[in-house]
Amino acid sequence: MVGDEADSRNPYESFEDNPYRSSVNIFTNESVLKEDWQPEKLPEREAELDEIRNALAPATRGVNAHNLFLYGKTGQGKTVAIDHELALLQDYAASQDTLDLSVIKTSANNQTTSYQLCAHLIKEIRDSRKKPSGIDQQSMFDLLYEEISDLEETVIIVIDEIDAIGSNDELLYELPRARKNNYIEDQWVSVIGISNNLQFRDNLSPKVKDSLYDSEIEFAPYNAEKLTSILERRAERAFVDGVLDDDVIPLCSAFAAQDEGSARQAIRLLYKSGELALNYGDDIVSETHVREARDILERKRIEEGMRSLTTQDQFALLSVVALEIDGETPARTRQVYQKYKSIVDRLDGNQLVERRVRDHLQSLGMQGFLLAETRNTGIQGGSHYRFELKTDLEATLDILSEDTRIDDVVSDLTEIATAKELT
Ligand SMILES: Nc1ncnc2c1ncn2[C@@H]1O[C@H](COP(=O)(O)OP(=O)(O)O)[C@@H](O)[C@H]1O
Ligand SMILES: [Mg+2]
């Protein structure tokens, strides 16, 4: 009986044939390669950690911590650095009677105004599922101050991805001054803003800059050497001894360094390379796996990003793609705009003015689809942008062709590109 039951559940002759069974051992602790794994040490960010510590230290002396603004491209260890320092500060607070600390950590992701961000913060502090709504902005701010008044004496509010709120930034002005303005009596409030968008910092209103930036810390892109040391620490725990070919880590680092210097990207690449080796039943992870992993991840990155583009982003991108096929890139905004107008015309779309199209082009640059370089124009002292496609042309056309709003134009472009043997 028992035997029959086991047989009916296992269609394979024996356990050896079970397709989940792998013939090779690649990982010892795969979780170390996951996104949310928390490293204990960040030696590559020693200087930045010091600065953060100096900014937070006043909290241990009974006054408010400095407001802080961290900025740098994605994958530079900003979030992990703040988590690391705040964990140390919370440990310290727990061991001392002199520091009563509340840390509120949140992401402004999807909160596009001060009002929304404020409602979101209230929700986080209350630990509730619903955001308050239906009141005017000042009442919403007041509600936040009320919530803060119930917290410990020292309050540190971390707002990650703060750039989501764009120029609608009053809250960032009000919050650090809440005590000075007597909205809050017993708490010391400080704000830590984190931004992946370098332009966000420049575009903030001057009063917010004054109010928010006691200290700002730049997280410059990691170079290949630093990425290598980050990967080596991970690899030591994650992989079976000796399964990584010598050139695997340097190659992962070099690829990531050439791109944006992102540790996140480097770690993903290493993980994917290991997974490919495992899936193929190869007992060594080699350069070939890294190269294939890079192609797969690159393709995925483009796909994800492109699928969420707005129609106007798509028009702007298509214009650059068309110029690329014409061999006319890098192209100036004016040139791209001419193309844009003809494409919008053909697709019967809503035509924006040149300045707005340039904003879309810059945003495509930020998202990694375009290379946007600034050139000085010389005697007039002005500067202008030049755009070109950064992603693979064939893959880009392929993904854009999935969208029925624009597929006519895309298929024409694909035809020309194929005729020119560009794809
Ligand atoms: N110096 C470092 N040492 C170890 N891991 C790091 C380091 N810097 C970044 N990481 C890892 O890289 C990934 C991205 O870091 P994260 O802090 O999320 O970047 P950011 O917030 O700048 O986008 C995370 O998995 C993080 O643990
Ligand atoms: Mg982050």
TrEMBL record:
Record domain Cdc6 C-terminal: where: 317-400
In residue numbers, the region (Disordered) covers: 1-20
Q: Where is the composition biased (Basic and acidic residues)?
A: 1-10
PANTHER family (UniProt xref):
CELL DIVISION CONTROL PROTEIN 6-RELATED, ORC1-TYPE DNA REPLICATION PROTEIN
One Pfam family from the record: Cdc6_lid
Lineage of the species this protein comes from: Archaea, Methanobacteriati, Methanobacteriota, Stenosarchaea group, Halobacteria
One Gene Ontology term of the biological-process aspect is: cell division
Asked whether the UniProt record includes Cell cycle among its keywords, one would answer: yes
**HAMAP family, per the entry:** ORC1_type_DNA_replic_protein
Q: What is this protein called?
A: ORC1-type DNA replication protein
- In this chain, ATP is annotated as bound at Y222, R234
**What GO annotations for molecular function exist for this entry?**
ATP binding; ATP hydrolysis activity
